[in-house]
Design a protein that fits this description.
The complex is a heterodimer of chains A (87) and B (324).
Chain A: H1 8-44, H2 55-65, H3 69-77, H4 82-86
Chain B: H1 3-9, E1 15-19, H2 26-39, E2 44-48, H3 55-59, E3 69-72, E4 75-79, H4 82-101, H5 108-119, H6 121-138, E5 143-147, H7 151-188, H8 198-217, E6 223-229, H9 233-248, E7 253-261, H10 273-293, E8 297-302, H11 310-321
Parallel strand pairs in B: 1-5, 1-6, 2-4, 2-5, 6-7, 7-8
Antiparallel strand pairs in B: 3-4
Helix pairs in contact in B: 2-11, 4-6, 6-8, 7-8
The chains are: A mainly alpha (87), B alpha/beta (324).
């Protein structure tokens, strides 16, 4: 079978995944993302003025959330997003 | 029961704490106890978690922020320098961020957070808390003697262990739930393994640190907590209140040591009315102490002819405290 072409079975697998599980996994990913933001809020809340205990140990977690900080702040500042209505 | 008997009958109690209002002799008793244990061949570390520690003064040696310093055979003393500890810790966090993402410098926003978090008053307390975990977890001494900060702070320190514990349990649970969602996605997409969650690993590490510390503070088998009091009304009332609060945090109270008792023998001499009045006042409160604390009174320590600094005076005091 040439490189790049999918077998019939492979295609079937993906179609079935798309029909049955894609919605579920998208939902799970979204929930996971919300939780991620909740997590940053309860560990790094100081950053946006929510006092959080205890700062010493939150610093330990800081390196891991560095890339998410910007999205997190944006998300918290916006009440609703147009995509919420669309999907 | 006397102090000597308490120590001899409970050899497994290796975390010793003296608590009480400021200036009543906590550091002095810590030093004398450390001296007594060390001279009986036990390996002892006496350490202070007080930002204004005075172990340096009593041992007449500058030990602030220098780690455990050997004072004599079997006896080490340590004063935690919280500022230094925080600076070093901040440095480690910055380095980790640089290493993880290959940055040349820490992003502004993040740097500001590191600075702001470190300026919070709770930061110093937590840093000390963490330093203490380092000290006691290392574990190569027979005895650890905590020279505690004055009562209010000690209570804060104790309650912090509980608050941390609850905080960490909640966020660990949240993190584990997040993990479940991640695994669900992986299963649905038929991916092999989800990446290991580094944050969850950190949380579990933090939890072991916090548990180690709060377990020691409330361990009936291994911990002995002594209150230092003097025969004066205000001190007794405050101590009674504090003892109630300590009991709430499950801190096992092993006894009360009464300090600064003016020797009764003086009454046989010609002494000024001033001194006579003080002895009478103390007699009244000593009676009250017996009523309040009963058999828990472990020792009466007289007012000495001079302040206790240097090993000579510490030895003299230890002989009095740990007499038969």
């Amino acid at each position: 079978m040439p490189e790049g072409k999918k077998s019939f079975m492979q295609n079937m697998k993906e179609v079935i995944y798309g029909m049955a599980a894609h919605d579920m996994s998208r939902y799970a990913i979204r929930t996971r993302a919300s939780m991620e933001h909740l997590f940053i809020l309860i560990t790094m809340g100081d950053m946006i003025g929510v006092p959080i205990l205890p700062p010493y140990y939150s610093l330990r977690l800081l390196p891991y959330v560095v890339p998410q900080i910007a999205t997190w702040k944006r998300r918290l500042l916006r009440e609703k997003d147009i995509s919420d209505a669309m999907f | 029961m006397g102090l000597k008997a308490i120590f001899e009958q409970n050899p497994e109690r290796r975390y010793i704490m003296f608590g009480g209002k400021g200036g009543l002799g906590k550091t002095t008793f810590s030093a004398a106890t450390a001296y007594w244990l060390a001279s009986r061949g036990k390996k002892v570390l006496v350490f202070s978690v007080d930002p204004q520690a005075s172990l340096s003064d009593i041992f007449q040696k500058d030990i602030f922020g220098k780690g455990p310093v050997k004072i004599m055979e079997n006896l080490w003393a340590q004063e935690v320098d919280a500022d230094q500890h925080i600076k070093q810790y901040q440095g480690e966090i910055r380095q980790k961020i640089l290493d993880m993402y290959g940055f040349d410098e820490v992003p502004d926003e993040i740097e500001q957070y590191i600075q702001a978090a470190s300026a919070e008053p709770a930061m110093e307390e937590s840093a000390i808390f963490d330093a203490v975990v380092d000290i006691v977890v290392e574990g190569s001494y027979d005895y650890y003697i905590y020279d505690l900060v004055p009562l209010g702070h000690a209570l804060y320190y104790l309650s912090m262990a509980k608050v941390y514990d609850e905080w960490i349990n909640k966020i660990t649970k949240l993190r584990e739930e997040m993990r479940e969602y991640e695994e669900m996605v992986s299963r649905l997409k038929r991916e092999k393994e989800t990446e290991e969650d580094q944050i969850l690993k950190e949380l579990q590490y933090i939890r072991t640190r916090i548990n180690a510390s709060s377990r020691i503070l409330t361990d009936r088998e291994q911990t002995a907590f002594f209150f230092v009091v003097i025969p004066e009304e205000m001190i007794l009332l405050d101590t009674q209140k504090a003892a109630g609060l300590f009991a709430k945090f499950d801190v096992p109270i092993s006894g009360y040591v009464v300090n600064r008792v003016v020797p009764h023998e003086l009454l046989q001499q010609v002494i000024p009315a001033y001194l006579r009045n003080r002895i009478e006042m103390q007699d009244k409160y000593i009676l009250q102490i017996h009523e309040m604390f009963g058999k828990q009174v472990a020792a009466f320590v007289p007012e000495l002819e001079r302040d206790v600094t240097g090993l000579g005076m510490i030895e003299k005091l230890a002989d009095i405290m740990y007499a038969e």
